[in-house]
Amino acid sequence: MTEATIDNRGLQPPEPLVRILEALAEIEDSGTLTALMDREPILLYPELERRGWGWSFGEEDGVLVLRVFRPAAPG
Questions:
Q1: Which of 8, 10, 50, 67 could bridge across to 16 with cysteines, CB 3.0–4.6 Å?
Q2: Domain 3-69 of CATH type 3.50.7.10
Q3: Using 50, 70 and 90 to split pLDDT, how confident is the model at 11?
């Protein structure tokens, strides 16, 4: 399983979205991408869903964190 972290803080749109999609192209289907963010990437969510990725977003220790992963298969 591949785990990657990218720091998107201080970047202007659409660069955080582009960097996340580029990073996802490099990790395995069972991998997880963690992105440190300045704001919630609402426009990214439909694209993640279209590509079959799940996500969680929240604040951890004062930092906005997006985690992108493949959802578990049903059953």
A1: 8
A2: no
A3: very high
